[in-house]
Amino acid sequence: MHRIPFIVVDVFSATAFKGNPLAVVDTRDAQLTDTQMKLLTRQFNLSETTFFFPPESSGADFKLRSFLPDGREVFGAGHNILGVWWYLAHAQILDLSAPHRIDDETRGEEFTFHQELGGEVTPVKITRHKAIQVGHHRVMVSMRQAKPHAHAIHPDPAALALSIGLSAADIGFTPESELGVLAASLQPQVMSTSTTRHLLVPLSSIEALNLADVRRHKLLEQLKAVDDKAYGLFSFAPVPAAGNGNKTFQARFFSPSMSSEDPATGSAAGSLSAYLYEHGVLKLDSRNSGRITVYQGLRVGRECNIVVELTLRGNGDGTMEVDIIGTGVQVTNGRIVVPDDSTVF
């Protein structure tokens, strides 16, 4: 029976069993059909499984395809893509012999590669820190997401709050918080930095965030009420006095397509940066850039750390570029049987 290599990476953490698990399948020497990839994804039964291949498009280093356990192919650039690039660098599959930039202050070496995903070729930045030991933030990946888009505002925030076990007063930041002056303008809204849309729900406190009780059928009703293309609900609250120089938030993500809470959702964190900028919460520096830090997965014991950088480009035309930044750690590897293509998915 033909077997191919796989790896499981915990993404957005340098500590094993604390990141968001991703199955990565090396298909450089295999010709898999869509059915075979879907069967393998269902077998791993993680939130996503990503396959990497030789590129088909000019200028790309690798082609990537990513699937959910239900067979749906996804094109968002979140943990499913960042984790693959972390592994490619960590396993020395990438050529890291000639950095295009060296930061003398941090001793970080920067490399740029290009991925083919959904028919588009986009850049990925790899940073390798020489001064830090292997396995502890030695490799960081910075990945460009699609241009952010704002969609519908939820028509009934009070009903939304009740559906997740909270009150209307829990929606938005409180006047007493550091960001409370903007509370009135922060409403639940659908945002996207990919083909996947998420309903972003600002909450008043970490306590409210932890009390949220999201039920699948009620969540589906609320998503349909605002946008029938919305994939999930991303609730977040400000972390007071985080001390890392970035605006810092704690978040939770739920989707009707997932059996449990998602430990880290890069596509939603990227959307959050654009949402906060549009509402005046995220301020830009002299380089027209601003960063946020998102802690996610704490309620499920995962403790993921996602950094998002938003940059305003162009000559005042307001073009936003969103990059998510994170690391990973390998927890296992092996070989898996290639399923029979005639098997019904």
Structure described in brief:
With 345 residues, the chain is α+β, with helices and mostly antiparallel strands.
Question: Could you describe the 3D structure shown?
Answer:
This is Phenazine biosynthesis protein. InterPro entries: Phenazine_PhzF-like. One of its GO terms (cellular component) is cytoplasm. It comes from Lasiosphaeris hirsuta. By secondary structure, the protein is an alpha+beta fold. It has two domains: 3-137 and 329-337, Diaminopimelate Epimerase, Chain A, domain 1; 149-324, Diaminopimelate Epimerase, Chain A, domain 1 (Roll). 17% of the residues lie in helices and 37% in strands. It has six helices and 18 strands. A hairpin with an 8-residue loop joins strand 1 and strand 2 (20-26). The two termini are 19 Å apart.
What's the SSE pattern?
EEHEEEHEEEEEHEEHHEEHEEEE
- The DSSP helix count reads 6
Strand element count: 18
CATH superfamily of the largest domain: Diaminopimelate Epimerase, Chain A, domain 1
Mean model confidence by pLDDT: 90
Specify the CATH class of the largest domain: Alpha Beta
Low-confidence stretches: 132-137
Global morphology: globular
CATH architecture of the largest domain: Roll
- Rg (CA only): 20 Å
Structural class category: alpha+beta
Roughly how much helix do the residues carry, as a percent range?
Answer: 10-25%
Bin the strand percentage: 35-45%
How would a textbook summarize the main sheet?
A: 18 strands, mixed
CATH topology tier name of the largest domain: Diaminopimelate Epimerase, Chain A, domain 1
Gap between N and C termini:
19 Å
- Total domain units: 2
GO cellular component, one term: cytoplasm
Active site: 48
Pfam families: PhzC-PhzF (PF02567)
GO molecular function: isomerase activity
